[in-house]
Amino acid sequence: MAMTRRATLAGISAGLLLLGCSVGAPTKSEPRPESVPVSAASADATTTAEAIGLLRGGTAFVNQTSYRSDVDIASQITSLSHTDNVHKRLTAKVTAPGGVIDIRMIDDEVYMKTSLFRGVGDGWTVLDPARVPSDFALSFAPGKNDSGGSGRLIDAIVTARADGPEISGTIDATRIAAGNGISFRPGPGGVFPDSARRHTFRASLDTEGRLVSFLMPEASGLPNASLRYSDFGTTVTVARPPGAIAAPDALYPQLGLGEGK
Predict the structure, then answer these.
(1) Which of 19, 63, 92, 159 is most deeply buried (CB count within 10 A of its CB)?
(2) Does the predicted model carry a pTM greater than 0.70?
């Protein structure tokens, strides 16, 4: 596996932490493909647009009902969240090498407990959302409320084709913007493998057209990564943690850096 074995925590958004993995040294450039006839290119563009439309439609549930999202990167960092944007409730747990992060959101209140950051302590803290880095804003507002981060993945798709409820194609991993869910960091020298720009993916919709899985297999320097949605419509109950204190100043600069202890 060409990636470094240390998966890193990269940031926080909509109650979930961005999960990032560093990748290894770049691979050799691949030969340029032969030119594609205009008619074929046009057909491929249409096919891709239709498939992307299905994926975007498949994430409409984010603003309509409660759901569970699971993210896994290289079996090193995992997250589990239960989100209800309609009633403004969220619970999330991120497990990473060295510790666990718990997050609870109730209306505009954000609570976090973690042992991964320096100078923060191990108890529950109350965050000031205005002090969280903008890329990782904690909010139930549309566009910032998908705890799985599917929109950023869809935005990075290069080619796609639908076969019934199954959608497959290629994604440019270097274009996956910062935010919650799946993301990758370049390896030494700040360079991605060439193949990262044409990384394969496959996604599945359920019988109601909802996105239930988005998978990126391990290949050419990138680790395997998966996003899954389930438990649609399940009640999300969140309790305010007793004894929570204001988050210390030391916490906020670390939310976007992911260095940990």
Answers:
(1) 19
(2) yes
